[in-house]
Amino acid sequence: MKTSRDLIQQSVKGLSPMPRVLGVSGSPRKGGNSYVILKQILTGAQQAGRTCDIIELKDYGFQGCIGCEQCRKNKICTGLNDGMTLLYPSILESRGLVLVCPTHNYNVTAWMKAFIDRMYCFYDFQNDRPRSWSSRLCGQGRKAVIAAICEQESKKDMGMTLDAMRLPLEALGYEIVAELPVLAVFDKAKVREQKVTLEKATQLGVELAGQLA
């Protein structure tokens, strides 16, 4: 089994991760709609032959980036030692990524925002102003699917939720295979009644798995 140090060196050298899929839920609810959709996407990926892991951010005690910039030297976050430290190996070794998050106040949840911000450690910066930058995750064939859940019936009521996941992932070097907006659902696990949505989620998992070949 590779150690965290091995995986960090792998990212520094630009070596490709394994064609497995990491699923991340940004919901504070246990067994809610985000979890149902995430499981459905991963089911599709598993049916297509990919190994999948699932993470619920609510189960990890971690905070947002504090801007200490120690990662510029160490190539991983060393300014904080918390639950996110446990998640970096899974991120580094998985070529596929699925982010699913409910809409909170027109945006992702605080958990998902902190998770994305803590991926700042994968950037390399130059010393010019404004600083030139690149991502060590680029050029590794990384692919992602993102999904957002919203109680309202209009996609505009999701606000920045999908953008807040898509734009940072693209900057990090992920190709977004597909996006899934899930509307008009709030009650816990109520999305189980949306058969078309569940089928779509499964198909997105299959599609993601196929692109990791």
Q: What does this molecule look like?
A:
- The model has no long low-confidence stretch (mean pLDDT 94).
- This protein has one domain: Flavodoxin domain (Rossmann fold, 3-Layer(aba) Sandwich).
- The chain contains seven helices and seven strands, in the order H-E-H-E-H-H-E-H-E-E-E-H-E-H.
- The chain is an alpha/beta fold.
- The protein is globular, with a radius of gyration of 17 Å.
- A five-stranded parallel beta sheet has the order 2-1-3-6-7, with helices on both faces.
- Helix 1 crosses helix 4.
- Helix content is 36%, strand content 20%.
- It starts with a helix and ends with a helix.
Q: How would the global form be characterised?
A: globular
- Counting DSSP H or I runs of 4 or more residues, the number of helices is 7
Ranges where pLDDT stays below 50 over 5 or more residues in a row are none
Domain tally: 1
Write down the CATH topology.
Rossmann fold
CATH architecture: 3-Layer(aba) Sandwich
Strand order of the largest sheet: 2-1-3-6-7
Average pLDDT value? 94
User: What distance lies between the first and last C-alpha atoms, to the nearest angstrom?
Assistant: 22 Å
Radius of gyration in whole Å, from Cα? 17 Å
SSE succession: HEHEHHEHEEEHEH
Q: Count every beta strand, where a strand is a DSSP E run of 2 or more residues.
A: 7
- Specify the biggest β-sheet: 5 strands, parallel
Provide the structure class. alpha/beta
User: What is the CATH top level name?
Assistant: Alpha Beta
- In percent, how much strand structure appears in the residues? 15-25%
CATH homology group? Flavodoxin domain
Helix content: 25-40%
